[in-house]
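Lecture notes, unit on protein representations.

Consider one protein chain, 486 amino acids long.
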Amino acid sequence: MKVFVKNIGIVGIANVIAYFNGFLLFIVITKMLGATDFGVWRQLLALLRLLTPIAFLGLAIALIRFLSGEKDINTAQETFYSITFTIMGVSIIIAFVLFVSSNFIAISFMKDIAISSLIRLVALFFPLYMLSEILFIYFQAVLQMKKYASFLIITYGIEISFAISTIYFGFGLVGLLLAIMCTRVIMLFFMLPIILREVGFKWPNFSMSATFLSFGFPLLPLSFSNWFIDSGDRYLIGYFFNPKYVGIYSASYVLGSLISFFATPISTVFYPTMSGLWNTNRKDEFNKYIFYTMKYLLLCIIPFAVILTLLSKPLLFIFSTEEFYSGNSIVGFIVFGLIIYSVSLLPIHILTVLKKTKFALFSYTLAALTNFIMNIILIPMVGILGAAIATAIGYLVLLYLTLSEAIKFVNFKFDIGAIVKSLLASVAMSIIIIIMDPKSLIGIFTVVFAGLSCYVTLIILMRTVTKNEVLFLKNLFISDRLSSNE
């Protein structure tokens, strides 16, 4: 358990850098390029996030599932290299198709032929981008979270430095894409030698490919459905309106997605850890991890959801320009939807560990279909607010389906008392935020500190965290000795 929590902490530090990097980039683009270019940028990112799971063929999850805990070097080599070569072959094909169809995509989905040159640039660096993603997943699969986090931090540091420089010198979105491409090439020289030293090189015979594909391929539509719920609304907003509205919506989404800061490190560590526990038949520990992960996830995200919702207007005022201010009204809906999604990640990962991938696919598909229908209905009626509401509804459907199925197989419990206490403490915190009503950056930092101090104090006074949990956390940070049972 100590290893699990420490790994979450390590990845959490990397994610602090990641979200700072993304938020800083958001500020630079909105301040220097405006809403239209920011909308185009978010559409390009959405395109990249659509192509990535297609190229993976579900094999990213298979790599984590089958490499985690593997002791035999020959099996590890076959697993890693057969999956890597398969993904790279598919990536090259996708890059070619994307390059030749760039004009069609730009005209049909983005309504601007000038964007085709940016799409061709994405196509050129896509295989290298995919290779770097595979190498990151390797470190996640073998639970080398210090290396994983270190490489993430280095990546973000180089990327933001290049990105700000290219935008400052007037290269615009072209420079931004080149910055990402150069960063990924540099990271290959960092990561590849380490992996070659650890597993060596072996030309795969692809004897296990059928097993990997039978496990991972059903997850491909799942990934597409997840993409549509998360990013498809950018294209629908662009279809009904224009890139400027995409930019306004995306700015609010960037702000609201800061709530994922807590869910991302937990999710990154949770799946490989749970796979290892299930593979070694440690069912009691498996259930304990589920309970405490859910408890502390909610204790963290509930107060920050309140903070982001109440402070959305001054945050947009400080970090963007006037054309983005209208988006503050949708941040609360975005935050609510992302809380639901963060909670749903746990039953989704559990179903995947249990190899219930077909039901996970069904759940994502139905949620995506619900999201699409609601977007088509609501966006023309209420604009970008409709997209935020549709996303929240889609995630609610996803949570209901996956949680209903997961509890049939595992002891999935919520600490209702802790949730109620967290909500009560958050209400008290929100009163402080409303009364102080900050307008400046210093005022925001002050009110966040005051609000969180109030929240933590009330959580302690209401004994939300037990003495045993306090002792565990204390021992976690003062002792580096890990028992052989971890």
